[in-house]
Specification:
The protein is mostly helical. The chain contains 22 helices and two strands. Helices cover 71% and strands 1% of the residues. Helix 13 runs antiparallel to helix 14. InterPro entries: GPCR-associated_LMBR1, LMBR1-like_membr_prot.
């Protein structure tokens, strides 16, 4: 079994990172280098989290073996030997041979640092560039990152000059390396505590609120109102950009030197807009015959960048709107089925995705009713209580992990109790649950936060390349300080425990933080205590209230703006529900018509078609006459009957008409 656990976890973590990236990214449309770089960043960060418990158990075994094999005369060596235990030092099932873990951590750590500080920032600028060639994109990326790279080089150069001039400093290469690692970890720890303070409160609270059906439905209505505003803004922005593309396409003809750039821009436009511009294109006109002002290549690069952004945003809002509609319809179905006497879950609409026969065989309507209406709320409540307990333990340990006599950190107490009996399974499980919970609190916040429209991780393959690369940068910067914080909570870090024992392989790669005593004895110990203040601020939703005051509408139960948006969202969902019901009714009528008259001979079919055309013409005439008599005050039942006679899209006289198809709008806006 030597090294088998390490190999299994390496394979498992790879498929886990691949699954998450497939959920958020789009393998078919996004560049392969973007997918590979993001996958590598996510994979390395998840790998550190999963492998670190094995490093802890291996270190405890090495300490035990060192204590047993050492004599009291040999206690003056590099490490202080522990008192031999009454229990024999059993080799753990996941033991990793000596020499493997230091090399493994060195490769993983420095690869992640190269990604986060050099490669991923460059690829961000490259992916968002509007250049038409690889050389142009590289040039743009270098210019945009010149200030970014120059700032770090300036700081590092000033530090080297100060060390060289000052005779009191005699730093070696290993110490310089440690200082660089400490600087990177300090920046990561600063951001880590902010994200951790939010996740420790928000994750248990979100699961507790998940048991409240009314709360979830109201929040879905609120999201629908906000998303409709964003969707309308994205459509308007896309139309404006497409209008500029149309003007550029009409001005730059087929024999213009920049026509290739225009064709590249047109390929990024939606298909319907490409067809529409192609019909209005006149390529038989020479650009030299008329003295027109043509756009420059720089302006085309800017337009290309705007087209990529607007198309991605428009597609994302369309997909998110459909997903939100399905969620709203399902929550409304759950609310209706809670009072069902038959105890069978009934859906208002059939699922648009093909159903898995195996899942439907076990997940019957009766099982679905018991799970959604009875078991799921209680399951979420129990899970919320367990997560809240973990959060309290983490907050207590973050405030007391610096105390070694007595040991107040609960995680350190658990590990030390298991270390006395050398129960490696318990040690690995305790370490894994601890670091896994910390990672969930931090990483879930990274997935939830949204910086306007520049950084946003959207599921269902709707995340752009810039956001994917930015998430990889955050993961690579947050994971090393997260692991050091975990080792401090469990007193496996000699800097915290103040014991000259054998360190873990991960700590040995980081180097001794004694070189910078004000960081090792000050910032690393006392700064994590701020997590208490951040947890209190998150519990009382201070950040949400501040954003609401600044004009960014947030879901707050005691806000008048929230109530208005909930009512607006409820009306939008009701309108979409009526629209889908009428579409299904029309499909059912057509299906019944085919089943009833589909087997007749050709003459009968022609006669029926001719009769239907006459009836349709007569119905349209009567409908038009009737529609002219109706106003907004007509009854909804009579209005629905007239709309069904037309067999067309329903007309809603209670709200302003919304045109979802950009092609039906007037092009000369």
């Amino acid at each position: 079994m030597s090294g088998a656990a390490l190999g299994l976890e390496i394979v498992f973590v790879f498929f886990l990172a691949l699954f998450l990236l497939h959920r958020y990214g789009d393998f078919k449309k996004q560049h392969r280098l973007v997918i590979i770089a993001t996958l590598l960043a996510w994979y390395l960060c998840f790998l550190i989290v999963f492998i670190l418990p094995l490093d802890v158990s291996t270190t405890i075994y090495n300490r035990c073996k060192l204590a047993v094999n050492s004599s009291p005369a040999e206690s003056n060596g590099s490490y202080v030997t522990l008192a031999p235990s009454k229990h024999k030092c059993f080799k753990p099932w996941s033991y990793i041979p000596n020499g493997i873990m230091p090399i493994f951590w060195r490769v993983v750590y420095w690869t992640s640092q190269f990604l986060t500080w050099i490669l991923l920032p460059f690829m961000q600028s490259y992916a968002r560039s509007g250049g038409f060639s690889i050389t142009g994109k590289i040039k743009t990326a270098l210019i945009e990152n010149a200030i970014y790279y120059g700032t770090y080089l300036l700081i590092f150069g000033a530090f080297l000059i100060y060390v060289a001039v000052n005779p009191n400093f005699n730093l070696q290469w290993n110490q310089l390396q440690t200082i660089g690692i400490a600087a990177a970890n300090t920046w990561g720890l600063f951001l880590l505590v902010l994200l951790l303070g939010y996740g420790l409160v928000e994750i248990p609270r979100s699961h507790w609120n998940g048991a409240k059906r009314g709360y979830l439905l109201m929040k879905t209505y609120f999201k629908a109102a906000k998303l409709m505003t964003e969707k309308a803004d994205a459509e308007e922005n896309l139309e404006d950009i497409m209008e500029e593309v149309r003007k550029v396409s009409e001005s730059i003809k087929y024999n213009h030197p920049l026509r290739k750039c225009v064709d590249t821009i047109l390929k990024k436009c939606p298909t319907e807009y490409q067809e529409r511009m192609g019909r209005n294109m006149d390529d038989y006109e020479d650009f030299d015959e008329r003295q027109n002002s043509y756009p420059s290549e720089k302006s085309l690069v800017k337009l290309h960048k705007q087209v990529i952004y607007s198309v991605q945003r428009h597609r994302r809002t369309q997909v998110q709107w459909q997903i939100l509609l399905e969620q709203a319809f399902y929550l409304e179905d759950v609310a209706k089925n809670e009072t069902s006497a038959t105890r069978q879950f009934v859906h208002t609409f059939h699922s648009q995705e093909p159903e898995n026969k195996i899942i439907r065989y076990f997940y019957t309507p009766t099982v679905e009713w018991y799970w959604e209406c009875l078991l799921r709320p209680w399951f979420y409540r129990v899970l919320a209580v367990v997560l809240a307990t973990f959060s309290v333990i983490v907050v207590w340990s973050e405030c007391t992990f610096f105390s070694t006599k007595p040991v107040l950190s609960l995680f350190a107490v658990f590990i030390q109790l298991a270390e006395k009996t050398y129960n490696y399974i318990y040690i690995e499980m305790a370490c894994f649950l601890t670091i896994f919970f910390l990672s969930i609190c931090v990483y879930s916040t990274v997935f939830r936060i949204r910086v306007f429209n520049y950084y946003y991780l959207a599921s269902h393959h709707q995340t752009d390349a810039y956001s994917l690369l930015f998430s990889g940068m955050l993961f690579c910067r947050l994971t090393p300080p997260l692991c050091l914080n975990f080792l401090g909570l469990t007193h496996m870090d000699a800097t915290i425990s103040h014991k000259n024992t054998q360190p873990t392989a991960y700590t040995s790669i980081m180097g001794s933080m004694r070189v910078l005593s004000f960081i090792a004895d000050g910032f690393y110990i006392y700064y994590p205590m701020l997590v208490v203040i951040l947890c209190i601020a998150t519990y009382f939703s201070l950040g949400t209230r501040c954003l609401n005051l600044l004009g960014f509408q947030q879901f707050m139960g005691d806000s008048e703006m929230t109530s208005d948006l909930i009512d607006e969202g409820k009306e939008l969902i009701r309108r979409e529900k009526r629209k889908r019901q009428r579409q299904e009714e029309g499909e059912n009528r057509r299906r019944e018509w085919k089943e009833r008259y589909g087997n007749r001979d050709d003459s009968t079919r022609n006669r029926v078609v001719h009769t239907d055309q006459k009836e349709s013409s007569f119905s349209e005439t009567n409908t038009n006459r009737s529609l002219s008599k109706y106003t907004r005050s007509n009854g909804r039942t009579e209005r629905d009957r007239i709309e069904l006679l037309q067999d067309a899209e329903p007309l809603d006289f209670n709200a302003d008409s919304i045109n979802d198809d950009p092609l039906e709008a007037d092009s000369g806006r």
